[in-house]
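A quick aside before the break. I want you to see a complete sequence-to-structure record at least once, exactly as it would be stored in a machine-readable document. Don't worry about memorizing anything.
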Amino acid sequence: MHQWMELAREAHPDVVEKDPEATKLIGALLLEHVAKVFYNDFGSPPATLFLVLVAKPRSGKGSLLRLADAVARRLGINVTGDVTPEALAEELSEHWNTIQIWEDMGKSLTRRGKEYYSGLDKLLNNLYYLSPVTQRRKQAKSIYLRPRSYLFSFAWDTTPEEWGAVQEFLGGEMGFARRVLPIRMSDEELPYFEFKRPSAEEAEDAAKRLMAMELIAHKLKDACFLVDLSALGRRDEEEGELERRIRRLEAERSEKSRISDYVKKLTALSIVDSMIRVREVGGRPEVEIDLSKAKEYRGHELLEAVELGEEERPRPVELEVYEVGPNDEREARMKALVIFEQLVRRRMTLLADEDVHRYAELTKELLKRRTVVSKRQWWFEVVKGKKKRVVDEVLATLEGLGIVNVRTVGKTVFIIDPSARICGNCGKFMTPLCSLGVDHEAVWRETLMEEAEECFEPL
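That is the input. The structure line, written in tokens, reads:
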């Protein structure tokens, strides 16, 4: 990972400086396909990453993907791009270790239409679980991918305006979208006319970095890792810190599931990465893989990959499996907590900061006039009929900022000014139906009736 970060810093210093976490995640994706990392969860899933870089044009996301494309090819990993589901399955039938790097995915989806990529979400769901894939064709040879016979990840990019359409195409939060990690990159615009020619020393250093990565790929060509993550779970019959934090997290179950999955994957990859040591001897890089604490693995094959032989007949790829764990369990737990906090902090949003500010001001003006409005009224007067996924995120953001309180009475959702009080005499919000004024003493908690106290929590 260190070699990748340094290589990216030399190639695109501005991008790495403003988005180091996005750069690290792309490096983790490359490491997964070099080391073939699995972890000891149910079914021993692979630590495959499905990344979508989200930022406005000229923010560096395309530069990062193109560098990853070039490096992956040098490391012997098959790379594919904008293809149909049928072509993707065919690619995997010929190249078991494949990364899809797809620039402007949202734009392609808009230009060609969802029908062109019909079935992609279902195929991706099978690939996520390493399930069997079958495609019967009339005009060409049918395709069958055996379970756990391939390794697949992707890195796409799109804009914030197109992210909603991409998420919807992938089946929303109840579909494959919950398996995808969107990375909201900085929208800071890169320079238009700033050219930097690398010095001879910088060029030589970049060549050494790339050579070191090639040596790592060569040493791990026939290796496969199963990482023991039991240190992240319960300790002394009590819930671990990670479990407590994710349970307290204010998010949907699908979002919690996504975060927990990626904490496990990235922790497993970081443990394998810590086993790789690169040093320079005589001006050339040398690579050592520390397998001193690796255990003998017994069980079903993690990856029964096949590749095409000289006569186009599948032949097995024999991989040596190493079962490894963290050298220091406490350090692994701390590393997982850091990854957890980073993922929570960088959760994807459909809203730009200026949008949040505008909606907040409009909502404050509305509540000055009405004090209490239904969600339907607020929808039409503030967010102007935006789609539900945007409306829900706006409302959750405003509630989190303390600008509104949200209460549900029956099937109706009310949006309330946090400074308002509830009348305990009639059990109504501050509306013309209430016989008391907003500033009347009876609106304070001491005078609330039992029913009003239960149904209308003081604000």
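Two observations worth writing down. Residues 353-455 form a domain with the Arc Repressor Mutant, subunit A fold (CATH 1.10.10.10). The CA atoms of residues 86 and 138 lie 13 Å apart. We'll return to this after the break.
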